[in-house]
Amino acid sequence: MVQIDSGESAVSSAGTGKTAQRKRRSKEKAMPVEGVRATPVIIAADASVDSAIATIFSSARDHWVANERGVNAGLPEAVHQFRVGLRRFRSALSLFRKFIPEAQRRWANEEAKWILSEFGPTRDLDVFAAELLPSVTKPKHRAAMKELKHAAAKARKISLGLAQHAMASARYARFMRRLDIWLAGAGWRAARDVDTKDGGAIPATQFAARTVNRRVLKVLSHGKSLDAMSVAERHQIRIAIKKIRYGIEFFDSILPKRRVQRMWQKLKALQDSLGHLNDVAVAEQTVAMLLAPGPDGTTDSRMAMAGAELIAWHQRLEEAARPEAAKRWRELRKAALF
User: Fold this and answer.
1) Which CATH code fits 42-333?
2) What pTM, to 2 d.p., does this model score?
3) Residue 190 main-chain phi, psi, to 5 deg
4) Residues pairing with 293 in the sheet
5) How far apart (Å, rounded) are the C-alpha atoms in residues 144 and 67?
6) How many CB atoms are closer than 10 A to CB 16?
7) In three state form, how does the secondary structure of 270-294 look?
8) Phi/psi of residue 22, each to 5°?
9) Of the chain's two ends, which shows fewer C-beta atoms within 10 Å, N or C?
């Protein structure tokens, strides 16, 4: 908490204090920052759904805004956390769909989806360079792998510039201004129909358990066997699990602690075991982008071979992880709900 002195001491030190403030702010602006993670969401035990909506949406908004400076500094983790904050926001829009007028929900979702998509290529290139390429041990095409990494770095510089331009755009500024007004005035409540005006007055605890349970059951309805699912279905499972984890994180303070911990662990284990699916997708998309034909219509054959080796490597890792994923799926099916 900032304390302000009063009286003679405050007057005598005013000049010094202002100078120190300016120096500190200048130093802070010059210093790159790492990615900022979300702070825990705290919802009062007796909170209403409307109160929970205000708390959760503000948390997501503050999360991505806290990473804007890091994004401008080009820091990979800040780019990642900026996107996580936006995904949390969109997940909350889905969770509270019935309490938010559709026109408002659609507007907020479209704007968040737009700015999120602007940073997608940069994030994929960060994962490609920092995780996917280095994981290949003793590559056959070592020199070409280095060329792929160099090409990814050049592409990342371009994609980051485009993303930063989007964040500095009039569209993003309008979105943030309108969002701040919406949050400050609880716009979702003010615009409700008369018949549903008090819908958000129900206890948040009641809504939280029912909503998370419904989402878990929806995921489990995909079937008993993960092995019988297509790649696309397993992708859907992975994304749905991520959204459930966001929901549990939002309601962590008002859900039963032991069940939260157990469910969280099971969901994380399954999501991690399915992570190789995303690695393959990112590898395929990024290699295709980096090997796009040049003005003369040709591609670098050496880099193409390195790209094929990289994709095959991650496909093998995904195949090797399937038994573990199937096991984690069976464990999730046995988990107690809230």
Assistant:
1) 1.40.20.10
2) 0.86
3) -60, -30
4) none
5) 34
6) 9
7) HHHHCHHHHHHHHHHHHHHHHCCCC
8) -60, -40
9) N
